[in-house]
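Subject — a protein and its fold
Fields — amino acid sequence, structure tokens
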Amino acid sequence: MDSPGRELRLPLDEAVEVLCDLNEFVVSLDRIGSRQAGGAADDETMGRFVADWDLAGRLARARRRRRLRPRARLRRRSTLATGSASTP
């Protein structure tokens, strides 16, 4: 998965938002897991967390940011290099 020489550029505010979300998810999942191990939480607790925090939606938004940025940047470079907007 690691490709030397490749980079991903995100505006700082978007990068901070994604990193804060990921940190919140990790901390919360760790706490829920600890509570489940101690018998103080069950599968319903995890389900509520996933739903209440819109976990799937927030992760999907982070993934879209990661996917869309490099493609858009590559298209701009192709257009600039050829002077044609129709170049993929």
